Amino acid sequence: MSLLSIEDLSLAINGTPILHGISLKIGEGEISALTGESGSGKSMTAFATMGLLPKGATTSGAIRFDGTNLLTLPEPKMCDLRGREIGMVFQEPMTALNPVQTIGAQVMETILVHKAMTPERAEERAREVLDRVGLPPDRFPLSRYPHELSGGQRQRVVIAMAIALRPRLLIADEPTTALDVTTQAQILDLLKRLVKEDGMALMMITHDLAVVSDMADRLNVMRHGEIVESGPTSDVLREMRHPYTRQLFEASRHQADLGDAKADAPMLSVQNVSRDYPLPRKSPFGPRPIFRAVKTVSFEIRRGERVGLVGESGCGKSTLTRAILGLEPVQEGQITLDGDPVWQDGHPNLTVRRKMQVVFQDPYGSFNPRHRVARLITEPFHLLPDPPQGAARDAAIAEALTAVGLKPEDADRHIHAFSGGQRQRIAIARALIIKPDLIVFDEAVSALDVRVRAQILDLMAELSRAYGLTYLFISHDLSVVRSITDRVMVMRAGEIVEDRPTKAIFDAPQHPYTRTLMEAAPRLPEFPEAQDAPQPAL
Amino acid sequence: MLGYIVKRLVSLAISLIVASVVIFVVVEVAPGDPASFMLGLNAQPDTVAALRAELGLDQSKVERYLSWVGGMLTGDFGTSYTYRTPVAQMIADRMWVSLPLALFALTLSTLIAFPAGIFAAARRGAPSDLAVTGATQLGVAIPNFWFAMMLVLIFAINLRWFNAGGFPGWEAGFWAGMKALTLPAIALALPQAAILTRVMRSSLLDILGEDFMRTARAKGLTARQALWRHGLRNALIPVLTIIGLQFAFLMAGAIIIEQVFFLPGLGRLIFQAITQRDLIVVESVVMLLVFAVIMVNFLVDLAYAAVDPRLRTRT
After folding, report:
1. B176/B228 same-domain check
2. Distance between CA atoms of B296 and B244, rounded to whole angstroms?
3. By its UniProt entry, which SMART domains does this protein fall under (chain A) (predicted)?
4. 3-state helix/strand/coil string of B289-308
5. Same domain for B241 and B98?
6. What residues of chain A lie within 8 A of the CB of B1, using their CB?
7. Which of A191, B19, B34, B102 is positioned for an S-S bond with B277, CB 3.0–4.6 A?
8. Are A430 and A440 in contact (CB under 8 A)?
């Protein structure tokens, strides 16, 4: 008999249907993945299983855990089950821990709240589980606070809390989405090891097909609150009976059509640039120590080139980007665009500034919600000495919106009327409107679902071909960088360790760190059937 | 942690120096010469000059500032121009009314606000939450002198449980003193409690939406356990800020309530001193209040660090 059996589960929140007749089974020692795009109901399935649905939720069907229907179980019994029999790991390790309690206290709490052990024994167990998740006592005593740990280490603490009482079912909701690829690989290995050692069942929720393809025993593909396809992972990925599964798969390894790489004259030149940040003083009157975030970096970008900059969080890529955009001065070296410095006499150089635009990651946070699209996308006009007025302005707006696949009429709407993908199109329109030479994309597609991401990447490639645009594409996601760039620079600890054409770097990475990154990145399996499927022209 | 305390102490000292200069300058430039005020309109110029010399008003401003600050550091606050008694003694007498009153009111307001705020937050959107929020709305809106008069009308005049005003002095016994301070403390505390309840409620609601509260539930804590163990301490930081501000207000801002209940507190002292151009008393009382406010803020800063470990490592 399966340990967890969800039978015909339907869920509505305040009358809005969320899930429609979900059925799935997970056996002991089995890893079952729920995948699909945002809003497909993956997380709600997990919360229904935990009995932690938001207020106003009504359910029908049954969730049987070891024979007991969890949907009808009274709350005190549910509390008893949570943490002891069913553990859960969340997406955001940075906020999943209580900032004012030590990690030891938080791991012990799982044990003590269930009165499973004496406090002394609970402390020993907390120590054991932290060791087990890879947080040894010499570096991670129980008295550590969450803010003293990195994201990956915090996620290990969250996992330790979830497995402290050796639950029979572990639910992991996007456990590695917020982490760097090397950390992600470690956390996935840890989860696999725990399942193997404890015979735990694992419900793994992720939007990333590549993550589950080599880890899950079974794969459930969800869309609009329904499971459209499920079965053993290798079967699902080989057969892909449902068109949606195929779309997800194709979109995940989408290759944008960049056209030929150009090798024009150098445009952006970064020469021996270093960027320092002062740290807090160690003693009241001592000198301020300095953190060098970017260390003597040099490179060039030629006109029409699409260059990727990859690296893990904290490697200095955002710092370097801010310096290129002239948002902050550099301490050493010089950055020039077409020979003009981006920073001059203590000010950003406006003549250079108007040749560059940037598109940010968050399509929700990067617009003022009170303004209409026309006003939002004409913001860069303030950089121009003589911005277009009246009909010329309207024409510019219409042209920019049409270029990104929207309609000129959209100019009169507010931003909340648009989806995430459409907002990112508007962000690109805002960058395009002053016809810049260089567009910097700062994790511009990281927050998007795979199918939308593929469309936006196509749009970027198309615009680059049509207008001869130069791109600097910053991302932690290697597969995205691979699909949209001619050349890749790999950054680590403030230095560029490898800078070569995209194909060369992915085919044969030279630097050991690049190899580590490549190996850590989850990959989709290559199936002969999938390659027969219609592919966008390369 | 030590670095944090040292840093706070340095900023405390700087605040005190700046405040003393500002108070001295502001009081100095205020119109009205205390000596001519004390002697009346018909005084002879030489009599006024003699009094000015006696009061030390003929010295240079810098000298007077230094002797004022130096005196305060040694506990000598000077002599009142009007009453010719040591200011330190006057302040000490009044302090024994104002400080207990402020503490009494603050305790009451905290005792009301914490349970009410937690109760409302735990039942967000329920009728009981609406009732509490509605009551706090009223509490904020009602002027405290009007409320004070209502208290007098009901509990002193009709029910005769308390005296309508006055203070018998602590010599009459602890309970007699407390009894005299009860109605004023309630009148002071209720509006403060209403504000504090709202802060407590909204701060807790913010925390309840945090990811770590969900983590706590996933561990098997009941909603109530999660609230008490993980919610409260995190919600306390904005609440501590408001408590600090309220204490400062209760020390200095009780003037109206002291008038209504005829209490010999600091508020009345400063009010009288201003009308009589008793500058030395005004300066000293204001400085003392500033000192109290800054000290309370310092204590609040220490309390932050006790509550939030992230502040301790930041030096």
Report:
1. yes
2. 6
3. AAA
4. HHHHHHHHHHHHHHHHHHHC
5. yes
6. none
7. B34
8. no
The reply to whether residue B215 touches residue A80, judged by beta carbons under 8 angstroms, is no
Residue A269 scores a pLDDT above 70: yes
Among residues 225-284 of chain B, which lie with CB inside 8 Å of chain A? 225, 229-230, 233-234
Q: What pLDDT, on a 0 to 100 scale, did the predictor assign at position B30?
A: 67
CA dist B211 and A97 (Å) reads 8
B150 and B66 in a common domain:
no
B6 contacts on A by Cβ (under 8 Å) = 284
- Are residue B143 and residue B279 in the same domain, yes or no? yes
Of the residues B39, B73, B107, the one at which a domain ends: B73
* B21 and B62 assigned to the same domain: yes
B147 in the same domain as B51: no
> What structural domains does chain A harbor?
4-252 (3.40.50.300), 262-281+290-355+464-521 (3.40.50.300)
Closest residue, chain A, to B309 (C-alpha): A100
Q: Out of B10, B222, B230, whose CB is closest to A79? A: B222
pLDDT tens sequence across A446-479? 878 888 889 889 999 988 888 888 999 998 888 8
Cβ pair A85, A169 in contact under 8 A: yes
Query: Higher pLDDT residue, B82 or B291?
Result: B291
**Containing structural domain, residue B169:** 87-308
The minimal CB distance from A82 to the residues B6, B220, B309 is found for B220
The mean pLDDT value of chain A amounts to: 88
B2 touches chain A (CB under 8 A): no
* B222, B288: one domain: yes
Facing A100 at nearest CB: one of B215, B309, B314: B309
Between strands A31-35 and A218-223, the pairing is: parallel
Q: Total structural domains in chain B?
A: 2
List chain A residues with CB under 8 Å of B211.
90, 92, 95-96
